């Protein structure tokens, strides 16, 4: 039972870490939601903003200024939290691989392997909370920005919603959290 639970937690952690990495690297955290007469599809991400022409499929992207440039708080905080979550999830995966029962590393000391799995679960939990905070921070900021424009009757011609990268970050963080619970609470 313990080995099956470890492998399940590892598979979930691996998939969720990939989701977190993809969410951090991709550029569709916000998408334009006005589809009435739009001829282009706009995406904003943590690193750049892209516009895709719907008629011919040509995509152009504008990189944001230097990482050290003055950026909005939501981008800086989300970048920081997501990169930290990625690093912690990667560290947890490396620790978990060494702690799995099916790996021959430290086979003679099962107590140490169990502690490695538990430690990986704790690290994964911390990373998942940071990733969830980063994704939710960005999503809430997008919602508040939209609500402020609506409440002041300001129409800029572009209406943004949460993009698939934001949802991917939330899904990856939630998966890492479930894997963390499996490793810290259910393994014993």
From TrEMBL:
<keyword id="KW-0796">Tight junction</keyword>
<dbReference type="InterPro" id="IPR017974">
    <property type="entry name" value="Claudin_CS"/>
</dbReference>
<comment type="similarity">
    <text>Belongs to the claudin family.</text>
</comment>
<dbReference type="Pfam" id="PF00822">
    <property type="entry name" value="PMP22_Claudin"/>
</dbReference>
<keyword id="KW-0472">Membrane</keyword>
<dbReference type="GO" id="GO:0005923">
    <property type="term" value="C:bicellular tight junction"/>
</dbReference>
<keyword id="KW-0965">Cell junction</keyword>
<feature type="transmembrane region" description="Helical">
    <location>
        <begin position="162"/>
        <end position="187"/>
    </location>
</feature>
<feature type="signal peptide">
    <location>
        <begin position="1"/>
        <end position="28"/>
    </location>
</feature>
<dbReference type="GO" id="GO:0005886">
    <property type="term" value="C:plasma membrane"/>
</dbReference>
<dbReference type="InterPro" id="IPR003927">
    <property type="entry name" value="Claudin16"/>
</dbReference>
<comment type="function">
    <text>Claudins function as major constituents of the tight junction complexes that regulate the permeability of epithelia.</text>
</comment>
<feature type="transmembrane region" description="Helical">
    <location>
        <begin position="118"/>
        <end position="140"/>
    </location>
</feature>
<keyword id="KW-0812">Transmembrane</keyword>
<keyword id="KW-0732">Signal</keyword>
<dbReference type="InterPro" id="IPR006187">
    <property type="entry name" value="Claudin"/>
</dbReference>
<dbReference type="GO" id="GO:0005198">
    <property type="term" value="F:structural molecule activity"/>
</dbReference>
<dbReference type="InterPro" id="IPR004031">
    <property type="entry name" value="PMP22/EMP/MP20/Claudin"/>
</dbReference>
<keyword id="KW-1133">Transmembrane helix</keyword>
<protein>
    <recommendedName>
        <fullName>Claudin</fullName>
    </recommendedName>
</protein>
<keyword id="KW-1003">Cell membrane</keyword>
